[in-house]
């Protein structure tokens, strides 16, 4: 019922209000066309997430099956998306500076979380992991590509490179060392260097820099491989949104702490994030409206959706439930903010 009401607002009520305001003149027609296009891109987000909730309600899948599908999506489909994004991206020297800046900003987010742990009212073992890390692949990519198309994913991927390095070099190793008392090892380094996402990014950039596009398009076998990668990439967005919908479950017991975490996270990220953009990134990057949209999309993203899984592996059941509730709350807020942003853009 809630989904139907929202769809009614996005279509009949909203477009009708535009017609009434402008008396259907040329300006109204143009705005209706633009708004219709935006709404048409937003509706799949709502429907696919709702489908995931319906599949859980009807018990079409068990959580174990969803986790297995999630591994396929992350390791194969999402890797294909990132390969294509970096392969087709118009690489510029400024982008590599942005990679480094984003990596350093994420470290600052993490250090602020550590600093907050020194104060009793903020102290919690999850704090530095709540204030840093984003669901870049699992939510950022499907949200952004659904509205702006995979052809513009390069703008978001510029940010994503620095984020992936941060996640694999600092975030997950720090979690293992914090909750499992492990020390940094050669095994951790191998996990970082040979993760499917890092390999796909490296290969995409290599093929791009080597300018192999014409060679791939002109030869049947490499072109066949590229088309296969495109097919795999097309699976990523719908499957990820369905999986997100399947996992949206709140636990009232942890809601107060989750809201506290969310407010702290957004205050830190939006303040430091936009200060960095205005003072540093905007002086490096050429002016780009699409990059502005990508940057906003990135900053409103929730913590990694896999956070609760890792916390459950390395910490207590209570911390796992709290992490999951915080991620779910942040995910719902991110989707709502993104939709509102698109409507009033």
Describe the structure.
This is Membrane transport protein. Keywords: Membrane, Transmembrane, Transmembrane helix, Transport. The chain crosses the membrane at residues 32-51, 72-89, 95-116, 128-147, 153-171, 192-210, 230-250, 262-281, 293-314, 326-344. The structure is a single chain. This protein has 345 residues and is mainly alpha-helical. The mean pLDDT is 81. Helix 1 (2-22) packs antiparallel against helix 2 (26-57), helix 6 packs antiparallel against helix 7 (153-180) and helix 7 (153-180) runs parallel beside helix 13. The protein has 15 helices and no strands. It is globular. The chain folds into two domains: 1-60; 61-343, no CATH class. 81% of the residues lie in helices and 0% in strands.
Please outline the major beta sheet. Answer: none
Determine the N-to-C terminus distance: 27 Å
State the helical fraction: over 70%
**Helix-and-strand structural type:** mainly alpha
Which oligomerization state do the chains in this entry correspond to?
Answer: single chain
Which spans of ≥5 residues are poorly predicted at pLDDT below 50?
Answer: none
What does the overall shape look like? globular
Q: Using only CA atoms, what is the Rg?
A: 21 Å
Strand content: under 5%
Question: Secondary-structure element sequence?
Answer: HHHHHHHHHHHHHHH
Separate helix tally? 15
Number of strands: 0
Number of domains: 2
């Amino acid at each position: 019922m809630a989904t139907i009401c929202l769809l009614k607002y996005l279509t009949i009520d909203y477009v009708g209000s535009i017609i009434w305001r402008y008396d259907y003149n040329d300006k109204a027609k143009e705005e209706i066309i633009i708004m219709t296009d935006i709404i048409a891109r937003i509706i799949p987000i709502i429907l696919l997430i709702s489908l995931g909730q319906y599949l859980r309600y009807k018990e079409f899948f068990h959580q174990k099956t969803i986790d297995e599908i999630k591994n396929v999506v992350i390791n194969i489909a999402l890797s294909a998306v990132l390969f294509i994004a970096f392969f087709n991206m118009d690489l510029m020297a400024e982008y590599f500076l942005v990679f480094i800046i984003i990596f350093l900003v994420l470290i600052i987010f993490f250090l602020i979380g550590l600093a907050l742990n020194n104060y009793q009212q903020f102290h919690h073992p999850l704090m530095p992991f709540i204030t840093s890390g984003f669901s870049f692949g699992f939510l950022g990519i499907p949200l952004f590509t659904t509205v702006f198309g995979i052809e513009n994913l390069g703008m978001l991927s510029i940010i994503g490179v620095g984020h992936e390095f941060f996640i694999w070099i600092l975030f997950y190793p720090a979690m293992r060392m914090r909750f499992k008392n492990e020390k940094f090892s050669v095994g951790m380094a191998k996990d970082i260097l040979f993760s499917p996402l890092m390999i796909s990014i490296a290969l995409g950039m290599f093929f791009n820099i080597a300018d192999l596009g014409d060679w791939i398009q002109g030869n049947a076998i490499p072109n066949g491989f590229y088309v296969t990668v495109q097919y795999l990439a097309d699976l990523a967005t719908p499957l990820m949104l369905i999986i997100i919908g399947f996992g949206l479950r709140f636990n009232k017991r942890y809601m107060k702490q989750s809201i506290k975490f969310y407010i702290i996270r957004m205050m830190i990220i939006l303040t430091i994030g936009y200060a960095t953009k205005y003072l540093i990134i905007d002086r490096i990057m050429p002016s780009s409206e699409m990059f502005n949209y990508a940057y906003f999309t990135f900053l409103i993203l929730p913590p990694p959706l896999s956070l609760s899984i890792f916390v459950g592996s390395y910490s207590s059941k209570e911390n796992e439930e709290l992490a999951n509730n915080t991620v779910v709350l942040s995910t719902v807020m991110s989707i709502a903010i993104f939709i509102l942003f698109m409507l009033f853009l």
